[in-house]
Every structure is written in C-alpha cells, then in structure tokens.
Amino acid sequence: MTLENIKLDIDYVRSQFPAFSDPLSKDWSFFENAGGSYVPKNVITKLNQFMVSTKVQPYAEYPMSKIAGQNMDKAIKLFANLINAEQNEILIGGSTSINLYVLSNALKKYIDPGDEIIVTNQDHEANISPWIRLKNDGAIIKEWKFNLNTHELEIEDLQKLITNKTKILAVTHCSNIVGSVNNLKVISEIAHRNNIIVIGDGVSFAPHGFPDVKELGVDFYTFSLYKTYGPHLALLYGKKEILSKLPNQNHEFLEGKYPYTINPGGPNHEELVSIIGIYEYLENVYNHHFDDKFNAKKISRINQLISKHEENLGNPVLDYISNRKDLKLIGKNKIKNKNRAPTISFVSKNKTSRSISDELVKNGIATRNDNFYAWRCLKHLGIDTNDGVVRISIVHYNNNEDINNLLNSMDKI
Ligand SMILES: Cc1ncc(COP(=O)(O)O)c(C=O)c1O
C-alpha cells in the first residue's frame, strides 16, 4: 500500500492517550494543544518506571544508577536520531524560554558593539527578548516585521535588513498565532551567505512532525517537549561546530566538555527518561500503519500521515472562520502542503475574545483567549494584547467529532 492510500487510524492514536478515557478530560474537545499537549501512555510508563526503579543519582556502577544513566543517554540519542542531529548537539532544559536565554548568554561573547541582531515581530517572546537583551552588550536590534496584508514574513524584507554587521537572526519556524510555516531552509541559506547564525524556534512546528535540522540548515533549533506529547522539558539543538566553541557556563572543571558546558546545570532526570515514551509512541504508530519496522529515518512517513489528517481537520475550521463576516482570521485560509499549521487564531468584530472562549468552554470546547506571549505580533495586527485572540490549535489526535463540536458551538454562540 502506498502512503497516499494510508489514513491515520485515529481510534488507534486516541487509544494511546489516557486523557481520552480519563473522567476529567474525556468529554472535552481539546483545542489548546499549542499550549501543551496530552501525553501517550508510554511516556507515563517510562516516568513511573524511572521513579519506581531508578530514582537515584545516575551513572554509578550499581544497577539502579547504571540503568538510570543509560536511559538518560538513550533518550537524548533517540531524539538526536529523530531530528537528524548528533547526540552531542542536543541540550535539554526546563523550557524553550530558559534554553534560549542560556544560549543568548553564551553567544554574547561573539557580539561586539555595533553588531546587529535581527528578530521578528511574528515570534513568541522567548525568541525575541533574550536577543534584545544583548543591547546591553552593544548589539543593535533590528525587527523583521511581517506583512500586514499577507501576515507573512517576506524574504525581501529580510534581505533589506541584512548588513555586513548582522551576526544573529532569530526567527520562528511557525508562528503560534499566524500559523504560517516559514521557510527556514531558504532563510538559513540567505543568512549563511552573510555569515549570520540562525536560531530557529520550532515550538509551534514540531508538534506537527519532527523536522530534519540538517535539512533546514539552521545553526540552532528549539522546541518544547511538553508540546510534543512529553513532559515539561525543552530541547535545544546546536551545530557542534558552534556549540563546541561557546563559553563554559557550567562548573569550571567541565571546561571543554560540551554540550555540558552550555547549561549551568543538568535536566530533570525522570522527565528526560520519559521522552523515550514519545519515541516508543511514534514507533507504535508507525508499526500500526506500515508493514516494515520503524526507525528514526522513517519519521517523515509519520509526518506525512499526520499532516494529511491535520489538513482534513484544519481546513473546515479555516473555511468556517474565513466565511463568517463577523470574524477575522489571522494567517492563511487554507492548509496546503504543510504551508501552515492547524494553529488557528481569530478575533471577532463585535465580541471580545474572552467572551467567545468562555462560551466555547461552556460548550465543552477546551480553548482560551490570550496573546500567547506573541504580543508584538498582536500589537502589529492592532489587536488588544490583554484580550488577545481566540486560538483553536489542532494536533493529530483531534478527530472529526472535535471539529463538529467546535463548529456547532461556534454557530450557537
Ligand atoms: C512559538 C513558541 N515559542 C516559544 C515558546 C516558549 O516555550 P516555553 O514555554 O517552553 O518556554 C512558546 C510557548 O508557548 C511558543 O508557542
């Protein structure tokens, strides 16, 4: 059977997530996935096993400790394989905001007074404020603003901002408000022709399929594991050629032992091990749909399955919102060839976002209104940053019933 003929078996997918049978959550149509996703049972099992059998200091020779350390290394190795990186190119931290702060602190060594940094106004603040802070080290900050007609970051606008002083470009792979997927491959090529380091924020992209970071060409790439079906951790990839030259921010005696030098401390052990459960989940999904056995190189086939399903769920919502005269959709009105994530934001012309999200919640739709920390993006769109947008964020475990519930509720309110 070719990939075109295979459909995501949504009942199988949902059977892997205990939240869909838990009394508190089972009756909700959950659309706050871009805030934080549910976890598959393998993640919970791994967390539980770690806490029961190996909750000791890792990397000693007694079995509980040895296995704890082996599993921590395994978690990193599996995720490195998934995104086509090497093990020593992966850092795990408490959140993307923390990871990017730590990274900016390390990169400031390369910033001389007068050097330029480009940030966008489409990004979440996590990939803006750490770079703006480098003003204190003499950096000049330039803002790549998205086009107010298309809501897109236009490449020609980037080209106008680049000078021979530009050192860093921080740009989102996918906006958590606009939903557009930015072409990081092209952006990285342009940046590298000008010797610029590219920091890609993949937080809103990775839940819809883990990317190949080498293919994207970025120097750094980050995503939050708690939005990719795992615990509250975040992953930062960095090219080893750059990581190995960053200053030591850890203990003095660790000098030279990158990547341990970048973070001032280690990650949460039990949560790190539990991300093996995300990999196992992907493996189960693959083996359920295909005849051959899963390995990390086959992740693109799962990504395609997921994209097709997400497109089928997201497009009716985009159609509905863009056809209603009283609503204003943000971003593209169609998902095609993964040009957009099904992260769908809108505002109403005559109701507050808060009142709409409250009504939706009363109707069993788990969503919310907010600026989602992309407040520069909202300001540029002229949207009140306190009331924000209503955001419907869909992932692959949503089903047609969720979409019907949502559209029926939208009609009612
Ligand atoms: C696009 C984007 N980038 C960065 C972040 C920050 O992630 P974290 O909560 O892990 O700091 C978020 C969080 O919502 C996000 O949506």
CATH architecture heading of the largest domain: 3-Layer(aba) Sandwich
> In order across it, which strands form the biggest sheet?
2-8-7-6-5-3-4
Please compute the radius of gyration using only Cα atoms: 21 Å
Cα distance, first to last residue? Answer: 44 Å
Q: What is the succession of H and E elements?
A: HEHHEHEHEHEHEHEEHHHHEEHEEHEH
What ligand molecules are bound, each kind once? pyridoxal-5'-phosphate
Q: What is the fourth-level CATH superfamily of the largest domain?
A: Type I PLP-dependent aspartate aminotransferase-like (Major domain)
Percent helix, as a range, is 25-40%
Integer tally of domains: 2
What structural category characterises the helix and strand content?
Answer: alpha/beta
Low-confidence parts, pLDDT < 50 over ≥5 residues? none
Number of helices: 15
CATH structural fold name of the largest domain: Aspartate Aminotransferase, domain 2
Got a strand count?
13
Strand-residue fraction?
5-15%
Shape verdict: globular
Mean pLDDT reading: 97
**What's the CATH C level of the largest domain?**
Alpha Beta
Give an overview in words.
- The protein is an alpha/beta fold and 413 residues long.
- It folds into two domains: 3-38 and 300-412, Aspartate Aminotransferase, domain 1 (Alpha-Beta Complex); 93-250 and 257-262, Type I PLP-dependent aspartate aminotransferase-like (Major domain) (Aspartate Aminotransferase, domain 2).
- 38% of the residues lie in helices and 14% in strands.
- Strand 3 (116-120), helix 5 (129-132) and strand 4 (140-144) form a beta-alpha-beta unit.
- Bound molecules: pyridoxal-5'-phosphate (PLP).
- Residues 95-97, 124, 126-127, 172, 176, 201, 203-204, 224, 234 line the site of pyridoxal-5'-phosphate (PLP).
